[in-house]
Amino acid sequence: MPKNTIGKVRTRFAPSPTGYLHVGGARTALYSYLYAKHTGGEYVLRVEDTDQVRSTEDALKMQVEDLLWLGLNWDEGPDPKTLKDLGSFAPYRQSQRLEIYKKYSDQILAQGKAFYCFCTDEDLERKRQKAMKEGRPPHYDGTCRKIDIETAKQKISRGEKGAVRFLVTHTHDVKFNDLIRGEVVFPPGMLGDFILLRSDGMPVYNFCCTIDDALMEITHVLRAEEHLSNTLRQLLIYEALGFEIPIFGHLSIILGADRQKLSKRHGDTSCHEYKEKGYLPEAIKNYIALLGWSSPKGQEIFTESELIEQFDLDRLNPAAAVFDEVKLKWVNAQYIRTMPHAELWQKLLPFFDGAGLKLPSDIEWQDKAIGLMKTSMETLVDAVELFRPLSLTELDLNDEGKEVLKWETSFKVITKWREKIEGCGKMYLSTAEFDAIINSVKDECNVKGKFLFMPTRVAIIGKPHGAELKQLVPLLSKDVLVARANRCLKI
RNA sequence: GUCCCUAUCGUCUAGAGGCCUAGGACAAUACCCUUUCACGGUAUGGACCCGGGUUCGAAUCCCGGUGGGGACGCCA
Prior knowledge:
The chain is mainly alpha-helical. Helix content is 44%, strand content 10%. It is built from 20 helices and 13 strands. The chain has a three-stranded antiparallel β-sheet with strand order 5-6-9. Strands 1-2 form a two-stranded parallel ribbon. Strands 3-4 form a two-stranded antiparallel sheet. Helix 6 (205-215) packs across helix 7 (230-241) and helix 12 (341-354) packs across helix 13 (363-373). The chain is elongated and about 105 Å long.
């Protein structure tokens, strides 16, 4: 009987590689990871790829990539680079553990706790519909229970396809103690005989999951609430095989703003999409940690080590939580503000490149620019519009800007502005020098308020509204400022 | 249909029978700062799903209802 001999906490995240990593999956992975780290235990990545139709190698790569992006590195599982299984419980891909499942299936069959089923899909579907219509639970009706094992084996040896079903006969309540929900009771009659092995020999989720959790000595199974009723099947398998039962914790579901389970209908639900929208992995992690868990201190923004230190399983909320991107944005903004400038610049670079922005490569300039801009952005994508006026490309005058240039006083203001900059000895103006110049333009042209600031802003960024000039001007060289002013004067 | 889970401001939550006139965060509103916007600061409004019990006392415990979610697959 498999047993956790080390006495260590072992958690796992067991995704099915059928697409991108969903935020719900990310949270399950995060909690499993955090709990293992918190207790000094081990965190395993196992790949549940027994659905050969839907599981793909590409999807596995995507999931691995997203998990690594979030920094949820596993102690055992497929190697991040080669995807080769690493760890003493290998293999970690269920598609490579088929003999193991076969062995246990044979054992259950031999115990008489399972039987071969030769019913066809069509038969089953018809019976299911009929049962539903008559108000009965749509359970398997037990047709093949009466086929004895020898007869069944003969049929199989003649090439007939048979699935293996677990024989569900218990008449007692099945109970377990859920970490999050307390005692959960399943009365008898909730279940029909369920499949262990499909007729093509592939095992199904509930079977592999149970065997692997036991064999891999997983001590704490954290998974989404939709698996709560699966636990009954798994408990019956644990019982039949005499395996030690792990501690289960069923995490609440994450909902969209419409209070329905978060899904593709809600738009962006994968980590990958949030990455593209300019969210930092630290921020996503921090935000999803708070969906269903709270810090005993009431803290909301954490470093990685604070999260690990404070995270525990006794503060998980059983009720479903709505995913709120507005708050995610706020969390993201907090991280942007505290991130070292050079690091933030590196993260911004792909977004600038993607938008075709050409920005100075001077490190000092970049540092100054980030310092001035970072409180104005919530996501990395926001930086694109913020930095666009600083791009060393031709000034883009918008219609609103052109309107401002038509004002009577605008020509005078911009001419004076250009004259003042040209007269300045330095390559970059300081904020104070900019203030001084603006004030002298104001006095000498005798204009103020919007008639002063709007034309000046148009001469600098091509539009009358937007970024703070005090932030922008110190980041634009004299040459660029003059060239842009000239451009406006020519219209 | 049957079973399981669940219910505190718009959202995430604190709350372990008296510390609750229910606390915090995001969002909202107002004001301050600012010659635009944002940042920042200050303040305001905003919730215990409903009905029964138990108790001297219930957001908290119990029962019922209602709402929401999940499961009843040769999907996971």
